[in-house]
Amino acid sequence: MNYIIIYLILVNLLTFGLFWQDKRRSKKAVWRIPEKTLMGLCLIGGSIGGLLGMRVFHHKTRHTLFVWGIPIIIALQIGSVLLFYIKGLN
């Protein structure tokens, strides 16, 4: 269980950092981090970091994929955890 928590902390920090980095790069008009990479990190557990990155840096807030996609991913991840937890109790 500790490994899962450490993994989630690291992937969320990485995702948050990449949202920050991509925002900085967008202002400088240099090479950007692909949206697939940002969304992929959200899918593998970095959704909280992605959502915080969107809010803190005001980044990707006009992209429907991110505005709706990240909250949906979070809801699915929470639902999955609850489902496994409830099944584990029975």
UniProtKB/TrEMBL annotation:
What is the top-level taxon of the source organism?
Answer: Bacteria
User: Which UniProt keyword terms apply here?
Assistant: Membrane, Transmembrane, Transmembrane helix
Q: Which Pfam families match?
A: DUF1294
Which InterPro entries does the record associate with it? Cold_shock_CspA, DUF1294
Q: Which residues cross the membrane?
A: 6-21, 33-53, 65-86
Protein name (database record)? DUF1294 domain-containing protein
Look up and give the organism this protein is from.
Acetobacterium wieringae
